[in-house]
Amino acid sequence: MYQLVLRYGETSWTAALLPVSVDGMIAVASMFLLVDSRQGRRSGLLPWTPLVLGSAASLAASVAVAEPSVVGRLTAVWPSCALIGAYEPLMRQIRRTAVMKTGRDNAVLV
């Protein structure tokens, strides 16, 4: 994402902040989903929208700056895919641990 932003004429500090803002948006949305889950609430559209948009933006930026070949593009998107693929199982494990500690399906943290 940094390289893509530089390519379109932004300053280096702007290029450095954009990936942080996208990753931060993904992290905050994920934490919001986790808190809702632990409190037994269904999450609405608000946390899912930035999570999906941020993930898509990260993947799209990786493809945009990748070498224009199948291997180059797959290699470029692998870190984002690995993060997305590893993060959700981690969140599920945290939710299960909370359920096991409380003995209830709707674990509430105080």
Quick recap:
The protein is mostly helical and 110 residues long. It has helices spanning 2-7, 12-38, 45-65, 70-102. It has one domain.
List the helices and strands and how they pair.
Elements (H helix, E strand, L loop, with lengths): L1 H6 L4 H27 L6 H21 L4 H33 L8
Helix pairs in contact: 2-3, 2-4, 3-4
InterPro entries: DUF2637 (IPR021235)
Protein name: DUF2637 domain-containing protein
Keywords: Membrane, Transmembrane, Transmembrane helix
Give the tally of β-strands: 0
Q: Secondary-structure element sequence?
A: HHHH
Shape: elongated
Alpha-beta classification: mainly alpha
- Overall structural domain count: 1
Q: Which residues sit in consecutive blocks of at least 5 with pLDDT less than 50? A: none
First-to-last CA distance: 38 Å
Radius of gyration over all CA atoms, rounded? 17 Å
Report on the biggest sheet: none
Put simply, the count of helices is 4
Keywords: Membrane, Transmembrane, Transmembrane helix
Transmembrane segments: 12-33, 45-64, 70-87
Protein name: DUF2637 domain-containing protein
Pfam family, one: DUF2637
Descriptive report:
The structure is a single chain. By secondary structure, this protein is an all-alpha fold. It has one domain. It is 79% helix and 0% strand. The protein is built from four helices and no strands. The chain has helices spanning 2-7, 12-38, 45-65, 70-102. Helix 2 (12-38) packs antiparallel against helix 3, helix 2 runs parallel beside helix 4 and helix 3 runs antiparallel to helix 4 (70-102). The mean pLDDT is 84.
